[in-house]
Amino acid sequence: MDSKRAMNGSPFDKRIKIVFVLGGPGSGKSTQCTKIVEHFGYTHFSSGDLLRAECKSGSKNGTMIQNLMKEGKLVDSSIIVQLIQKAMLESKNDKFLIDGFPRNEENRIAFEKIVNIEPELLLFLDCPESELEKRLLSRNQGREDDSVETIKKRFKVFTESTLPVVNYYEQRGKVRKVNAAKPPEEVFKDIKAIFSSFQQGNHIGYQDIAIEGKPEHSASLIERCLPFLCIISILLFLFQFLLTSRQLYTFPH
Ligand code: AP5
Predict the structure, then answer these.
(1) Which of 18, 26, 17, 15 is nearest to 48 (CA)?
(2) CA pseudo-torsion sign 114, 50, 88, 30
(3) How far is the CA of 131 from the centre of ligand 1 (A)?
(4) Per the omega criterion (within 30 degrees of 0), is the bond before 102 cis?
(5) What are phi and psi of 22, to 5 degrees?
(6) Ligand 1, atom 20: nearest CA belongs to which residue?
(7) Residues 115-133: pLDDT tens digits?
(8) Confidence band (pLDDT; 50, 70, 90) for 198?
(9) Crossing angle between the packed helical segments 77-90 and 105-114, to the nearest 10 degrees
(10) CB-defined site of ligand 1, < 6 Å
(11) N or C: which end of the chain has fewer CB within 10 A?
């Protein structure tokens, strides 16, 4: 179901726009989402942050979640989807960036079942593992999952479970890939172009900018050709008219 038709069968009573943000661990999902929020007025939810907050809240699932995260394993989909849905329902906004989600097919299917809204697009931050590892090992935020051993497990989960989800949305024309190996400001330049085009109402499956070399939106192509079609029609009409009047003059003789 398209998010513009979200109200039927979804728990929301308004039209909701959702953008999923995926990329390897350390690809800059949080960094870039902060910038997108500043420029485009989205509300940002990070699945990792929601889970860390759940651990701190002392909920019954807290210890189980903490142990899975420490191991770089994925938490049960129903837990993360409930947390995302709760956060969305509590927000007054109608545009959401959901970062680090869906991380596997199970996440995706659970979201479809529970929230019943399809994303407008999926922003994919593409970055080689060597660069990701360097960033994670030097960020020093005291995260338990930033050890060399757990980082390797997180990379494995990303390749085996998350990339198939990216492929799923790629086939639906919803993926926008950016090169995330550049400095943050340069990465954001590309992202800004994508969101600006998207805000102007261009169809999500196509865009005019060259990032992915996709074809232009077919409606705008017709719009652009319309003046030429009109001129050709007028010329044809005039030609036909001249031909007919010439015949009228010629035949009586
Ligand atoms: P999560 O918290 O989502 O971690 P992650 O995906 O591994 O990503 P990070 O938060 O480490 O990095 P990021 O991409 O946000 O990059 P950042 O901007 O911080 O998930 C943690 C765990 O929670 C998972 O392993 C799993 O157990 C669980 N979980 C989460 N979601 C789940 C789900 N949906 N289902 C089940 N379980 C789930 O940047 C990283 C560093 O790089 C920073 O120091 C930053 O300053 C620097 N940096 C950023 N961009 C650049 C740049 N362009 N150039 C140089 N440095 C940069």
Answers:
(1) 26
(2) negative
(3) 13
(4) yes
(5) -125, 160
(6) 48
(7) 999 999 999 999 999 999 9
(8) confident
(9) 40
(10) 23, 25-31, 46-48, 51, 68-69, 72-75, 80, 100-101, 103, 107, 135, 139, 145, 154, 180, 183-184, 187
(11) C
Instruction: Write the CB contacts of 118 (distance below 8 Å, at least 6 apart in sequence).
Output: 1, 2, 3, 18, 112
Residue 156 contacts residue 130 (beta carbons within 8 Å): no
DSSP class of residue 161 equals: I
CA distance 10 to 18: 13
Tell me, yes or no, if the pTM score tops 0.90: no
Q: Which atom of ligand 1 is nearest to the CA of 146?
A: 11
215-252 pLDDT tens trace: 334 445 566 668 888 888 889 988 888 888 777 666 55
Tell how far the Cα of 25 is from the centroid of ligand 1, in angstroms: 5
CA distances from 217 to 46, 176, 221, 224 (A): 31, 15, 7, 11
* CA–CA distance, 94 with 116 (Å, rounded to integer): 15
Distance separating alpha carbons of residues 190 and 201, to the nearest angstrom: 18
Ligand 1 atom nearest to CA at 150? 25
Residue positions counted in the chain: 253
